[in-house]
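*** Fold description ***
***
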Amino acid sequence: MVADADKPGGLEAGIHTDFSQAMSYGDYLKLDLLLGAQAPLSDSHDELLFIVIHQATELWLKLMLHEVEAAQARLRADDPQPAFKMLARVSRIQAQIIQSWDVLSTLTPADYLSFRDRLAQSSGFQSYGYRLLEFALGNRNAATIAAHRHNSALAARLDAALRAPSLYDDAIALLARRGFAIDRAVLTRDPSRPWRREASVEAAWRAVYADTAAHWELYQLAEKLVDIEDWFQQWRFRHMKTVERIIGQKAGTGGSSGVGYLKRALDYAFFPELWAIRTAL
């Protein structure tokens, strides 16, 4: 008898095909749930693209937050080496989501207008995954939680994230534990407040870069943070240009000024001292 593997289109003998009593790939990934979560509200061919891009981005945001929080735990444990891989993974993910704007930019103004009114007031501004990630990286703005107050459990999670130390707070605390003279007001500050460029932190990072051999771990950490901020700025820029390409200067569905709002976001820096020292070195 000819084995299946030798037949045109045949399968190798060891490949499992009976999953009546076993977990399949689809079961493990809950593909029925995942692939059933796309529910266009119009008859527009292009609405599915819009939904898939944004849902995929939310999954990437979830993974980035998972990696950032794990990296924070390693920094707090004075074990930064594993954090470097986690933060490097965040940067790789950022490269992926930046590429997603290239796909979304195939949506023309006419395509988008065919279903835009079905979005009502929903907007990416309301992404709590994005907000949690920004909070974790240090961009603290309590006013942004207002869009989530209708969901008490989610609002409580965001409130807690707002009050918890950010990745940068943990990096600065590590600087202090490694002997750098960080101002006590920095180490005891309210982490829910927006970060402002600070002289003692800037001096510490400058010292790290002035003698990288002596402070190699901290130097690696600094460069991982710069990588993340660099990619984040590229993501913001591609977001802004994609929105401009599709809706021009129209207001966003969530009530923002649209492109104007996104342009202002380009001016924000998570880790301002790490950029400032590049001029000072």
Remarks:
- DSSP finds 13 helices and no strands in the chain.
- Residues 51 and 170 are 35 Å apart (CA to CA).
